[in-house]
Amino acid sequence: MSHSNALRLNALRVLASNAVDRDASQRIAITACLQAEEVDLNGTQTPERILKTTRIGSLALGPSTSSNELCIRWLIGTHCITLNDYICSLYNYSTTED
């Protein structure tokens, strides 16, 4: 998954569509990632984002390796954007990808 919020969101929307064949565990993982991704990263909605991200962490420990990989890739992508924003704020750069 990408560090770009827009790319992650659109990739999850494609994976959640009927055009992709997936099993039940993958569907649950994709839905959980999509619900968390749709929450804005601002001060008022941070607790909701944390709650939904925590749920994804518990899904990543399930028996399905494909859903585990999807959850882990989404979590890494999410952390990359957070780290990227933090580093840019240290050097007074702005991120314009989102």
| Largest sheet features | none
Work out the radius of gyration.
Answer: 14 Å
The 3D shape can be described as globular
Provide mean pLDDT, rounded: 78
Low-confidence stretches: none
Structural class: mainly alpha
Task: Count helical runs.
Answer: 4
Number of strands: 0
| Percent in strands | under 5%
Q: How much helical structure, as a percent, in the residues? A: 55-70%
Secondary-structure element pattern, one letter each: HHHH
Q: Distance between the terminal alpha carbons, to the nearest Å?
A: 14 Å
3D structure, described in words:
The chain has 98 residues and is mostly helical. Helix content is 67%, strand content 0%. It is built from four helices and no strands. It has helices at 5-16, 24-37, 46-59, 65-90. It is globular, with a radius of gyration of 14 Å.
